[in-house]
Amino acid sequence: IKNISKLAEVSKTNALQLSEKLRNKENQSDSEEEKMNLLIKNLKTFLLEENVPPEDIEKVVNRVLDVCQPVMSQNLTHEIDKIQKFSQPCEDYRTEENGLRKAADGAREVLVKAKAAKKAANVLSNLDKMLNKLQQVQITQGQADSTIAQLTAEIRTIKKNVLQSFIQQQVDQQAQETKKELDLAKQQSALEGGLGRLRTKLQRGRDEATRVRAQAESARRQAGGLEEVVHPIPATESRQTVLL
Fold first, then answer.
1. What are the residue ranges spanned by the domains of the chain?
2. Confidence band, pLDDT 50/70/90 cuts, at residue 162
3. Which residues contact 159 (CB under 8 A, 6 or more apart)?
4. pLDDT tens-digit profile of 175-195?
5. What is the pLDDT of residues 219-228, one digit of tens each?
6. Residues 94, 107: Cα–Cα separation, whole Å
7. Where on the tree of life does the source sit, at the highest rank (predicted)?
8. DSSP state at residue 231
9. Using CA atoms, how far apart are residues 49 and 17, in angstroms rounded to an integer?
10. Using alpha carbons only, what angle is made at residue 33 by residues 27 and 36, rounded to the nearest 5 degrees?
């Protein structure tokens, strides 16, 4: 159980580290996007000063987007796969750990019940032996009838009290078992809620990666005819090459 707990904690730590790396990459992507926007703005200003037609400027900008836009979709998908890879063992280890703990608790409870039953059986057996001896004495010694009757009543009372005590112990143990099961159910519910939120975040990351991939593909398609437009204008092409 300790080894499983340790492995679960290691997997959890790795998942958190990968989540932090993913956030850093997203921040880096935002910074690069700002730089790219500034580059496009400067490029448009330069081309306008050179009296380049607006439609050619748009094509050049699309070409810049195609070349400069970081391909974050693959990186995001890779990081998300890593997070899922480390999160799944974490979930499996916790499930296995809970099962082992429950089995160990059940074994301990059975052992406690067995010891209590054995103890009660020994007490009852001794009382039965004593009662039998007193009954034999009553047969042979009529003068001790009152004393024997009193002792017999006391023994029966003790026997009744022992049985009641044993029953009460069983009731208390059952109540404790019920409480443990309720606590375990609450913990399991909380764990399932945390895993559900993690799955939601992972799905959002996948959706964002798909959106970025679609934007990149759209930019590539729009830049498909760039060479046919740029080549007839040698001077402009030279300036574009320097900028790129």
1. 2-243
2. confident
3. 124, 127
4. 787 778 777 777 777 777 777
5. 777 776 554 4
6. 20
7. Eukaryota
8. T
9. 48
10. 150
